[in-house]
Amino acid sequence: MDSDSTASHPKESDKERAGIQSVEVGFALLDVLAQAPGPLMLRDLAAAAQMSAAKAHRYLVSFQRLGLVVQDSANTRYELGPATLRLGLATLSRMDAVKMARDRLPALIEASGHTMALAVWGNRGPTLVHWQETPLAMPVSLRLGDVMPLLSSATGRCFAAFISHGRSADKAAPMIEEELALARKLGRSDLPSTPAQVQAMLKETRQQGLGRVVNVLLPGISGFCAPVFDADGHLVLGVVSLGSSATLDTAWDGPIAQSLRQFAEQLSADLGWRAR
Questions:
Q1: What integer best gives the mean pLDDT of the chain?
Q2: DSSP tally for the chain: helices H, then strands E
Q3: Which of 130, 94, 55 lies closest to 231 in space, CA to CA?
Q4: Of the candidates 23, 46, 130, 191, which lies 20 to 30 Å from 121 by C-alpha distance?
Q5: Would the pTM of this model clear 0.70, i.e. be above it?
């Protein structure tokens, strides 16, 4: 009896490992459906998941029983089911964009060598909520809780460009008007001085996918800010990189700009955002 019992354990372990692997294999089908623009035929779904149609069909039968997948009886195409919606909504409701970004920042800081910050839209505008300097970073007179101007900071330009609706957008318009008037009063040639110039600046920001300033807010300091969106397409966060203008590459296609875009796009995707 003891020898039979002992012999059975490896088989149970093998089955457990096979079961886990089956979940991973089957998830490929769900992932393909999540990425697809619409319902898929069995052959296309199987091909995209890199498995045979017969194998894919077996998984899909089980997924249909669980409500993870549904099949249209008219055209036989497969689509994600109501159970995936419930799971997705539960996940989104528990996501904290700032915490997710903060947890991922160290790798970005190590790769860039520059100070990083996170900003959200507060009662008075774009507000710094996280700040992390590198040991060799040039000191910058910005700290947690500081509210960034919309026209003279990379953070402000990012928020002004990508906030498209809601109360935040309503508040941004009069703030821009105030900053325009102040810029004209001070004779700031490095800032937009007319509504047309503001719109041109915001258009460039949207086209580049980043807010940018070079020696505008602070002498000798340049910066970028990348937008992070949630599943509804709302701007929830700005990821900021700051540094000495002598060492921070301010080119739109430079390594800092590219790494910020990639970081923000991945975080947005993890929050449920999909590019239109």
A1: 85
A2: 9, 7
A3: 94
A4: 191
A5: no
- Give the integer Cα–Cα distance in Å for 113 and 135: 9
The number of CA neighbours under 13 Å toward the Cβ of 193 is 8
Nearest to 23 by CA among 76, 68, 53: 68
Segment 46-74 mean pLDDT: 93
| CA distance linking residue 159 with residue 127, whole number of Å | 10
Q: Which token pair is 44?
A: 């296309």
Report helix, strand or coil for 211.
Answer: strand
For residue 79, the one-letter residue type is: E
Helix axes 53-66, 2-35, angle to 10 degrees: 90
Q: List strands edge to edge, sheet with 115-122.
A: 125-132, 115-122, 235-244, 221-229, 211-214
Structure tokens at 78: 């497969």
Angle, CA of 91, 94 and 98, to the nearest 5°: 115
Task: Check whether 79 has a pLDDT greater than 90.
Answer: yes
User: Rounded to whole angstroms, what are the CA distances from 78 to 29, 42, 122, 184?
Assistant: 10, 7, 43, 59
pLDDT at 5 over 50: no
Give long-range contacts, CB 8 A cutoff, 24+ apart: 78-83.
78/33, 78/39, 78/40, 78/41, 78/42, 78/45, 79/33, 79/38, 79/39, 79/40, 80/30, 80/33, 80/34
Q: Are 115 and 243 in contact (CB under 8 A)?
A: yes
Q: According to the model, what pLDDT value does residue 152 have?
A: 92
CA distances from 158 to 25, 110, 155, 168, 182 (A): 40, 23, 5, 13, 20
Smallest CA-to-CA distance from 229 within 269, 198, 201, 259 is with: 269
Q: Which of 107, 35, 33, 88 is nearest to 64 (CA)?
A: 33
| pLDDT tens column, 157-183 | 999 999 865 555 677 888 899 999 998
Structure token pair of residue 198: 């503001």
